[in-house]
Amino acid sequence: MRQALAAIFIVAIAAPAWAQMSPVGLWRSVDDKTGEAKSEIRISDNGGVLEGRIEKLLRKDADPAAKCVECKDELKDQPMVGLPIIRGAKKAEGKDVWEGGKILDPENGKFYTLRLTPVEGGSKLEVRGSIGPFGRTQTWQRVN
Q1: How does 93-128 read in b/e, with b if 16+ C-beta sit within 10 Å?
Q2: Can you give the pLDDT at residue 4?
């Protein structure tokens, strides 16, 4: 009985730490050139596949009614708030890395190959978008 209670206690304490090492949650994106907060993105898990949407625009001059004028196809002229920017990422087997999806840069309307890596105990998220060998990495902050 004591062993069972001890096991339940350990799992209960460790579970939040496991959850934090996931990209799922609310994140603040930061411009990698200026260091200015750009937006908040909500990443959710839909059956093992990650999706992410812009939840809030944070730049001082941001228009809350802004639309994605550079986007293509069905995203063209859609509101920035609510815009799906992350699609299709899945957890790599045996690693705390999610890849295989795409990320949209709404400033130019292009999709990039995506890799998400939680770091610093899950308080930060390295977000890498690339085309072939070229790409860039931003570090997003978890919003509590």
Answers
A1: eeeebbbebebbebeeeebbbbbbbbeeebebbbbb
A2: 42
